[in-house]
Design a protein that fits this description.
Length: 680
């Protein structure tokens, strides 16, 4: 892997032969787990400008019509989050000279508040080719991480690391994107004109042009969440072709009574065996991927597949020694006369992937020049811990990537398209709806992670009778299962809300994921608790989940910062009014400066007397409020009504729908200070 420094450049073909498509990851983290940024991509012509506003890709315009660019969204890492972008370089128009890779923060946030700001680039097989760490990101609100650019018929990468102080809109305007003036004026940050001279040094080879320009009073186009005033008309880059989503309210049924069942394209009730479930699920998924380009592209772009004509096949027989092998499916994508091919191995109903099967498919794929093997099961892969260990023959010139998909992730992507983002036409929306109905059917076997594993009961018993010792491998198994469950909770909640929901990692930069799980397992042995945090886009704080295996209680909570202005009594009254529909047993705790806790009580007791939320000591600084709900924890390891997995899902869903939705949107975190509102 090549470590890049600012201003350096490298030819992609010098690093790998498989660079027709690449995945670029922009990453960062923060000590609080709340720092975030948005990625953007600009396609520039030889004059250093976009050809039109359509060449600007960001959160409201994530996919290029020709498939050359696709923003894949965020994934959690050991020390923060990564935003990934898929590029099909063979599909990039010949009049595009450079591709700018950037990210921006909003609401006055700066990159200096983040840690581990970096870029990584991987080839079509998933092998990381280069990395570029940006160490000097301080007061800027937008950064150009790097550029992909052409030299004759070859693509090269240049590490830029150039900061902008004017946010996403300033960066876009500098490259010729036409930002609507009214929308810009409405979103100006503090009304201040910011001028910055942006200049990059030439590379060592001397063949790179310099970027320079003066930015005026240009704001970020991202509006704060939860704003009271209606939005102004969107900036021009936000315009997009109208897409089809499912109606929020179901049409009135024409059935005579409730016993009548809708006819389904993919029936699941007649399935009898695991083999039937695997065969049906594979065929259903692959057929919809081929017929709904938006969906097929979304699932395969992360694996390095190009945008092109997709065909899918099931029960394909391939030679392998004396006994031919029959993978569950094959995906083939054609682009400009070239083929990208992946073998698919499917498991349903909790069945585990078999290492010998996957190994055989990896060997077949390598011999036949296929690009990938994709495994699909109810399990959720963990960072740094593959579900199946395979051996790679280093003597082979052709490399094959091994990827994993969870059925929960497939359902999440279908939900995001048909319920929130939209697809090209009504037929595609209907096909995705039928797929989603099939995946959620109790008999399909495609329900995602649904078993805490054989170590669950012994660990619970060991915690209960205080015989579980640090270093016990069973505790590590439970921690890994907990992490899989939390990742699945994020997928399900994000699919329902149409918002980003990600686990929060409060770890130091470069922390090894396996070492972190080991420490969490030792902590589980000491205090008997499993804990995680979720960041939900648009909420004022981080949603915390704690499972106390000693008491059998689940706690869901959120800390919200105190408002910047007003009086403490007004804050308390407003909070109680906002929570008028929240459960009466909601616990509210006032957070005060220092280690000592503030007043606390249930919402039922505090409703008539909000002043009871205020500290009695004069001059005590209120920094925020913690809202919590307690729920009994399921005991069994499975996904039944009485199971632990179902109880965690229900607890998060109840807390969000009954508490979090009533709160104000995200606000900048209030820094404790000696000056400000106090009680007394």
């Amino acid at each position: 892997m090549r470590e890049m420094v600012k201003g350096s450049n490298v030819s992609l073909t010098a690093l790998s032969e498989n660079v027709g498509s690449v995945i670029v990851s922009l990453g960062w983290g923060s000590s609080t787990g709340e720092g975030d940024a948005d990625v953007s991509v600009l396609l520039l012509n030889a004059n250093g400008k976009v050809r039109s506003d359509a060449d600007f890709y960001f959160y409201n315009n994530p996919v290029a019509a020709d498939g050359s660019v696709q923003l894949l969204g965020k994934t959690p890492t050991a020390d923060g989050n990564e935003d990934r972008i898929s590029f099909d370089l063979t599909a990039v128009s010949s009049d595009v000279d450079r591709i700018v890779l950037a990210a921006s923060r909003y609401e006055g946030a700066r990159f200096g508040e983040l840690e581990g700001v970096k870029l990584a680039l991987a080839d079509g097989g998933g092998e990381e080719l280069l990395r570029f760490a940006i160490e000097d990101a301080d007061s800027v609100s937008a950064i150009i991480f790097g550029e992909l650019y052409r030299r004759e018929e070859e693509w090269k990468f240049r590490a830029v690391g150039q900061g902008y102080d004017a946010g996403l809109a300033g960066l876009a305007t500098d490259f010729g994107v036409d930002i609507d003036d009214d929308a810009a004026a409405d979103e100006a940050l503090d009304g201040a004109a910011i001028d910055e001279q942006a200049e990059t040094t030439a590379t060592a080879s001397g063949d790179e042009p310099k970027l320079q320009g003066t930015l005026g009073a240009v704001p970020s186009p991202r509006q704060p969440e939860g704003e009271a005033q209606p939005r102004k008309p969107a900036a021009r880059p936000r315009t997009a072709k109208k897409k089809v989503t499912l109606p929020k309210a179901a049409r009135k049924t024409l059935a005579e009574n409730e016993s009548w069942k809708d006819a389904r394209l993919f029936p699941a009730s007649a399935l009898k065996s695991d083999r039937e479930r695997e065969t049906r699920a594979t065929s259903v998924l692959l057929s919809v991927m081929a017929q709904v380009p938006e969906f097929g592209r979304r699932l395969t772009a992360a694996f390095g597949a190009p945008a092109g004509r997709m065909e899918t096949f099931t029960e394909v027989t391939l030679p392998h020694g004396d006994s031919p092998r029959r993978p569950d499916g094959v995906i083939r994508v054609e682009r400009a006369g070239k083929l990208w091919t992946a073998l698919v191995e499917t498991k349903t109903n909790g069945s585990a992937l078999k290492a010998d099967q996957v190994q055989a498919y990896m060997d077949i794929a390598a011999r036949r020049g296929y690009e990938a093997v994709i495994t699909l099961s109810n399990d959720v892969a963990l960072e740094g811990s593959p579900l199946v260990e395979v051996k790679i023959d280093g003597r082979r010139k052709h490399k094959v990537a091994l990827w994993h998909l969870s059925w929960a992730e497939v359902a999440h992507q279908a939900q995001m398209l048909i319920r929130h983002e939209g697809v090209g036409n009504a037929a595609h929306a209907w096909l995705l709806q039928e797929l989603l109905h099939y995946l959620q059917h109790e008999n399909s076997g495609c329900h995602g992670f649904q078993n805490m594993g054989p170590a669950w009961v012994p660990v619970r018993n060991g915690i209960d009778d205080e015989t579980l010792c640090q270093g016990d491998l069973r505790a590590l198994e439970v921690v890994e299962s907990w992490e899989r469950l939390i990742r699945q909770v994020c997928l399900r909640l994000g699919g329902e809300l149409g918002q980003k929901v990600l686990p929060v990692h409060r770890t130091k930069r470069g922390t090894d994921p396996k070492a972190l799980r080991g420490r969490l397992a030792d902590q589980l042995c000491l205090d008997g608790r499993l804990q995680s945090e979720l960041r939900i886009e648009g909420t004022p704080g981080v949603l915390a989940i704690s499972a106390d295996l000693r008491t059998g209680k689940l706690r869901t909570s959120i800390e919200i910062p105190a408002p910047e202005q007003g009086y403490p009594l007004s804050w308390a009254k407003r909070l109680v009014r906002r929570l008028a529909e929240a459960p009466a047993d909601l616990h509210i705790e006032t957070l005060v400066e220092g280690e000592a806790g503030g007043p606390r009580g249930t919402l039922e007791r505090l409703r008539p007397e909000p002043a009871d939320m205020l500290p009695k000591e004069t001059g005590t600084q209120i920094v925020g409020f913690r809202l919590s709900l307690l729920k009994s924890m399921g005991s069994s390891r499975g996904n039944a009504e009485s199971g632990f997995i179902r109880s965690v899902d229900d607890a998060v869903h109840r807390f969000y729908t009954s508490v979090v939705v009533h709160l104000d949107g995200a606000t900048p975190r209030r820094a404790p200070s000696k000056e400000g509102a106090t009680t007394g």
